[in-house]
Structures are given as structure tokens and as C-alpha cells.
DNA sequence: TATTGTTATACTCTATAACTATA
DNA sequence: TATAGTTATAGAGTATAACAATA
């Protein structure tokens, strides 16, 4: 069970991916902080910018407990970035939706995520296509 | 400043990287939880398994405040995975080092990180080499 | 009865500032 | 005076369990 992958090439790729993950996180937190948001708040705002949804579904999307979402949406709502609306078809449900300002913030947030964009500019279209296909296969995605 | 990268290919690669990051984190937290460790505790244990070091340097390595490290090492020490030793050359310094059990746990932890290893097994050596070079260039590393 | 969202609780991580013991 | 580590404090995220309203 131990030291299963002595292969140096594979280990290097694993380490490179670790570096990508670390850098991605730094950039994400930094971009969020520039708007005085925490990472968790930025993630919730981002999923809501794509599509308003019930509290419960936010939790499933972010893979956390529903009780956490209550607090995060509370803080976003207190800052006027998100609002809670009733669901006409089920009075138990509350739909969380971004305000206009919330949508604007989400947009600026995404623009700030230069991490993958700028480095990618150094790769040719053929190379980016190659990278896309390799990542797809690594993730076991359809079309790989 | 807005919507700088309309290029669909680049956007897809960015999204794939986001997926890699999310999956990597899940696997990491899961592996840590299997040993009743938090992600932060697992990260500290891992860097110490490579090389014992002063508290201050752990903080620099993990890019957090030194005061945080105190608590994390406290908890690792309470569980017998890490110990604090005096530094003979400077009595202000405390060197954090893994115990035998800490080293063993770190080893098992790394084995559990199948994320990048198993999917990578589906790629040929040539493809892994290609992926390595693309990631290197993306990260602006030497040898790219 | 089951589900949605919330509250209450407890723990960890995080940064800031102040403290101590060394240097 | 400067540095290493710690403590005190406060805010945020997290999971668990219990709760009210609704289905």
C-alpha cells in the first residue's frame, strides 16, 4: 500500500498540480479580499450570479452543511450583495439571489482572476487545446 | 478592464483548472480527516516530515501568521505527532519536529493522496511529459 | 412524517496587537 | 532595539444537533 508511485515523472506532475492549486487559492483569496469578501462569501456570490437558488442547493453545490450557508448569506445580505426571496411554489424554501450590486461585484471578481488567464496567454492555441484535452482526461470528463 | 478573455478555449481551461483545484482540496481534506486531522494540521505535519524547522519558518512556508502556527503545533503536539525542541544556537527558537508516529502518519497521508496519481495513470509517459511541460510553462518555472 | 431553513453550540483557522525571553 | 514565540482577542468557517414552519 505504501510508496505506490515511485515514478519521478508522475511525482513531478503531482507536485506541479499542487503548485497550481496553491497559486489558484492565493489569487482567489486575494481577489475576494479586494472586495472585502472572504473566499467562502466569494464562492457563494459566484454560484448565485450564475443562477439564484434555494439555500439547501447552495450547500450541496459547495459541499458544506446547510447551517453554514445561513451565516454566509446573512453576511452577504447585510452588505446588500444578496437577497432572500420567497419561493412561490414552496413556502418552506428561500431563494437566494444576487442584487444588482452583487452581480456587478461577481463580475469584477471574475475579471480579477487573472491566474489562469495571463499565464495561458503564453501558450499557443494548439498548446492550450492540448492542455485542455489532458486535463479533461485527467478529470475523467466526457469528451476525453 | 471587463470581460478580457472572451476566448472560449481559454475559459474552458480556466474552468478545468478550477475543477482540478476543487477536487484536489476535497481529496486532501478527506485524507486528513481519515487521520482525524484538519487540512491545516496535515499541511504542517507534511512540511515538518520533510524537514524540522523553527515555528517562524513554518509560518512563512504556509504563508500565515506565526501566531496561528502556535495553535496548530499545540494540537499536533497534544496528539504526539510533533514535538518542540530547543535550538542550541539560539535560545529564542523552538524547532518543531515530527515524532516517529508523526512521520508514519505523514507517510500514510501522502499515500492517500491518490488524486493526481490514479488519473495520471491513464496518461502515457509522453502525455505526462507534455502535461508537465505545459504546467511548468503556465507556472513560469525554470526549464519551461 | 419528511423537508427547509434556522438557531445553538463547540471547535478550528485566521489576523492583529501586546507580551516574554532572548539576542 | 530587534527578533522568536506566545497569549489575548475577535471574526469567520465548519459540523452536529435540535427547532419552527411547511409539505
From TrEMBL, chains A, B:
Residues 10-140 form the HTH marR-type domain. InterPro entries: HTH_MarR-typ (IPR000835), MarR/SlyA-like (IPR039422), Tscrpt_reg_MarR-type_CS (IPR023187), WH-like_DNA-bd_sf (IPR036388), WH_DNA-bd_sf (IPR036390). Pfam families: MarR_2. SUPFAM superfamilies: Winged helix' DNA-binding domain. SMART domains: HTH_MARR. It comes from the Bacteria. Keywords: DNA-binding, Transcription, Transcription regulation. The keyword DNA-binding applies. PROSITE patterns: HTH_MARR_1 (PS01117), HTH_MARR_2 (PS50995). Gene3D superfamilies: Winged helix-like DNA-binding domain superfamily/Winged helix DNA-binding domain (1.10.10.10). The keyword Hydrolase does not apply. This is MarR family winged helix-turn-helix transcriptional regulator. The lineage of its organism: Bacteria, Bacillati, Actinomycetota, Actinomycetes, Kitasatosporales.
